[in-house]
């Protein structure tokens, strides 16, 4: 039960009212019951999740950083986007040796963060530790070292960027330095699905104050399944004990409280990933219908960097990169972010007019 949303009712009173109303379907404080029922139906057990899973160890530090970042940009009237990026893990042991993982590399989120910065947004980049990050994503692996040359002259070593690499490094470096000099990007890292949810809710709590200026771009590949804390062993599972039987539970749908309770005025964009084309639109529409948020970006695992569908209440818009554009290194995220920013502007204008 989301007790806090209904003032003047104690936990016990609420339980009593709910039971009465369920039995009789007609009771005195009907309006309250109706509202309560709606909250109960949409929230599932998200509160239980937070009640049984402890926050990550660096949670308070991250919360302070989020608060400072949002307050600073709020004072300046900036739009703020929360970009979530990368996959979440589901640990199989408390002292984690093994875990269930998600495929996401973090390309969607890290590239999008760059384009939001270009559009003047302050960016909270909430990402899976060690997944791709804005700017450094361009020089993954050995690329950066390959761009450097070393000169040794009488005990004086200098390192320089090779002349033919300057054209690749300079534009990225200049965007990186501009974003950091302006304090326009905050990095927050998670690993497990539980850490992700704690940070997501904390970010929403501070973003709520930005009202319609806040944009949520939920591109992280979040596990639909998890193992409740009480059901996982403390220590490494031993093969001598035989094959483990692992029961995964459904993760509560956080989009429901997020849209309705945590950031009710923000512009919320979720992502839908499928591997079967015929499910893509129906499932995206079902999500819009269920959560009543603003937009779903639908993509297929197989060609997610070449084609997406922007699904809103009124339309499906395709964004497509040609093979040539893809080979030339174009990012489909430039197009996605462009479309979203324009919808977000309409949302803002609409909210201000009201
Ligand atoms: C996405 O669909 C992202 O676009 C990708 C990006 C994860 C495919 P990469 O990081 O990939 O560039 O490698 N994110 C959301 C995936 C997700 O978990 N969606 C759930 C669902 O489809 C819940 S909203 O049901």
UniProtKB/TrEMBL annotation:
Organism of this sequence: Pieris brassicae (White butterfly)
Origin superkingdom: Eukaryota
Localization per Swiss-Prot or TrEMBL: Membrane
Coiled-coil segments on the chain, per record: none
Protein family: Belongs to the major facilitator superfamily. Belongs to the PPC synthetase family.
Signal peptide stretch: none
Protein name as it appears in the record: Major facilitator superfamily (MFS) profile domain-containing protein
């Amino acid at each position: 039960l989301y007790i806090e949303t209904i003032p003047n009712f104690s936990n016990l009173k609420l339980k009593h009212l709910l039971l009465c109303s369920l039995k009789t379907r007609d009771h005195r404080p009907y309006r309250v019951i109706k509202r309560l029922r709606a909250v109960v139906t949409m929230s599932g057990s998200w509160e239980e999740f937070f009640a049984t899973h402890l926050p990550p160890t660096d949670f308070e530090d991250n919360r302070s950083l989020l608060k400072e970042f949002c307050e600073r940009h709020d004072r300046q009237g900036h739009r703020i986007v929360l970009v979530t990026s990368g996959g979440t893990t589901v640990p199989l042991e408390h002292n984690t040796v093994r875990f269930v993982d998600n495929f996401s590399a973090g390309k969607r989120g890290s590239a999008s963060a760059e384009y939001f910065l270009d559009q003047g947004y302050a960016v909270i980049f909430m990402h899976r530790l060690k997944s791709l990050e804005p700017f450094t994503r361009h020089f993954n692996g050995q690329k950066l070292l390959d761009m450097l040359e070393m000169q040794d002259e009488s005990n004086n070593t200098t390192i320089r960027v090779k002349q033919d690499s300057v054209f690749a490094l300079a534009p990225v470096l200049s965007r990186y330095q501009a974003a950091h000099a302006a304090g326009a990007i905050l990095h927050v890292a998670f690993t497990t699905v539980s850490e992700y949810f704690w940070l997501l809710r904390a970010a929403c709590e501070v973003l709520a104050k930005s009202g319609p200026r806040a944009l949520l771009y939920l591109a992280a590949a979040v596990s639909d399944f998890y193992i409740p804390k009480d059901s996982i062993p403390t220590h490494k599972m031993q093969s001598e004990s035989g094959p483990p039987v692992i029961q995964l539970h459904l993760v509560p749908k956080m989009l429901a409280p997020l849209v309705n309770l945590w950031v009710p005025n923000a512009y919320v964009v979720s992502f839908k990933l499928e591997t079967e084309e015929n499910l893509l639109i129906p499932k995206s529409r079902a999500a819009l219908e269920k959560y009543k948020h603003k937009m779903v970006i639908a993509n297929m695992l197989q060609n997610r960097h070449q084609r997406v569908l922007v699904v809103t209440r009124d339309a499906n818009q395709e964004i497509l990169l040609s093979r040539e554009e893809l080979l030339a290194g174009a990012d489909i995220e430039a197009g996605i972010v462009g479309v979203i920013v324009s919808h977000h502007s309409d949302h803002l204008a609409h909210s201000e007019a009201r």
